[in-house]
C-alpha cells in the first residue's frame, strides 16, 4: 500500500470536520461488517504534512481503510481535513494496486491513487506508483501527469525502519519531488523532504513523535510543515 507520506491532528473548521467525521464513522462500520482482510485506523496528528509542506496549521483527525483481496490485490481510502489555497476543506485519497513477494525478503508493489480536494477540484490529480521493499526498507517512485492539476511530476520516496526494542522503532523518510512545469521550476529548486520519528506500539495504539524538514522550499506558496510532528493512532 502507498507509504504514508500523507501522514499519516481538536479545533477543525466546521465543513472539514463534518466530512472527516462522516467518513470516519462509515469506515468504522465498514470494518466491523467486513471480512478479516479489512482494516481501519483513526489518527490524530499535530499537523497534516505531505511531502514537507503543510496542509493545515491545526491538529487533524484522519481515517484510513484498507482491504486485501486475493492474489495480492488491495484497495483503500484515506480522508483528512486540510487547508488548501487558504480554504478549509476535506481531502480524500483512494488507491488500489497489487503487491507480491519476489523472494523471502524482497517484494514489489504497484498501483494508482487519486487525490480529491472537496472544494478545489481543479487541483485533483492521480499518480501511478511502483516500489520495492526489502525487509524494513522501501523505495517507491510515483508519477503524476498533472500534479495539483498542473504539470507532470515524479516523486522518489525512500523509507526505512530500525527496531529499537519490541515496542519502539525509529522510522526514517526521505523524498525528492521533481515537477516539469516552468512556473514550479521558477519558484523553487527540486525540494527534498526529510523526516525522522520514534514510533511506540501498545496493543492497537501507536504513538509517534519526531522531526521533519523541507530543503529548497515548497514552491507555489505552500507553507513549510512545522519541524516537530506528533500523532496517535488507533487501529481497528
Give the name of the CATH architecture: Beta Barrel
Q: In order across it, which strands form the biggest sheet? A: 1-4-5-6-7-8-9-10-11-12-13-14
Work out the radius of gyration: 17 Å
Task: Please give the largest β-sheet.
Answer: 12 strands, antiparallel, barrel
What is the CATH superfamily?
monomeric porin ompg
Q: How would you name the oligomeric state of the polypeptide chains in this document?
A: single chain
**Span of the ends, CA to CA:** 17 Å
Query: What is the domain total for the residues?
Result: 1
Number of strands: 14
CATH fold name? Porin
Instruction: Indicate the low-confidence ranges by residue numbers.
Output: 1-36
Sum up the overall morphology in one term.
globular
Question: What is the helix content?
Answer: 10-25%
What is the residue-mean pLDDT, rounded to a whole number?
84
Can you offer a commentary on this structure?
- The protein is mainly β.
- It has one domain (14-235): monomeric porin ompg (Porin).
- It contains 2 helices and 14 strands, in the order αβββββββββββαβββ.
- The chain has helices at 14-33, 182-187, and strands at residues 38-45, 49-50, 53-54, 60-68, 73-84, 87-101, 106-117, 125-134, 137-144, 153-163, 168-179, 192-202, 205-215, 228-235.
- The strands form 2 sheets. A 12-stranded antiparallel barrel has the order 1-4-5-6-7-8-9-10-11-12-13-14.
- A hairpin with a 2-residue loop joins strand 12 and strand 13.
- 31% of the residues are buried.
- Residues 1-36 have low confidence and may be disordered.
Amino acid at each position: 500500500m502507498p507509504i504514508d507520506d500523507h501522514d499519516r491532528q481538536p479545533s477543525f473548521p466546521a465543513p472539514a470536520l463534518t466530512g472527516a467525521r462522516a467518513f470516519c464513522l462509515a469506515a468504522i462500520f465498514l470494518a466491523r461488517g467486513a471480512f478479516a482482510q479489512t482494516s481501519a485506523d483513526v489518527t490524530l496528528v499535530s499537523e497534516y504534512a505531505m511531502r514537507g509542506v503543510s496542509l493545515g496549521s491545526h491538529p487533524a483527525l484522519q481515517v484510513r481503510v484498507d482491504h486485501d483481496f486475493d492474489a495480492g490485490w488491495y484497495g483503500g481510502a484515506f480522508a483528512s481535513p486540510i487547508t488548501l489555497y487558504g480554504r478549509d476543506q476535506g481531502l480524500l485519497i483512494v488507491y488500489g494496486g497489487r503487491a507480491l513477494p519476489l523472494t523471502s525478503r524482497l517484494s514489489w508493489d504497484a498501483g494508482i491513487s487519486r487525490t480529491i480536494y472537496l472544494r478545489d477540484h481543479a487541483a485533483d490529480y492521480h499518480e501511478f506508483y511502483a516500489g520495492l521493499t526489502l525487509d524494513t526498507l522501501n523505495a517507491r517512485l510515483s508519477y503524476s501527469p498533472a500534479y495539483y492539476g498542473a504539470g507532470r511530476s515524479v516523486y522518489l520516496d525512500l523509507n526505512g525502519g530500525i527496531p529499537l526494542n519490541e515496542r519502539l522503532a525509529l522510522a526514517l523518510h526521505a523524498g525528492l519531488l521533481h515537477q516539469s512545469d516552468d512556473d514550479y521550476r521558477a519558484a523553487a529548486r527540486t525540494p527534498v523532504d526529510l523526516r525522522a520519528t520514534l514510533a511506540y506500539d501498545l496493543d492497537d495504539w501507536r504513538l509517534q513523535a519526531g522531526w521533519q524538514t523541507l530543503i529548497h522550499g515548497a514552491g507555489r506558496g505552500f507553507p513549510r510543515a512545522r519541524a516537530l510532528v506528533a500523532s496517535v493512532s488507533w487501529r481497528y
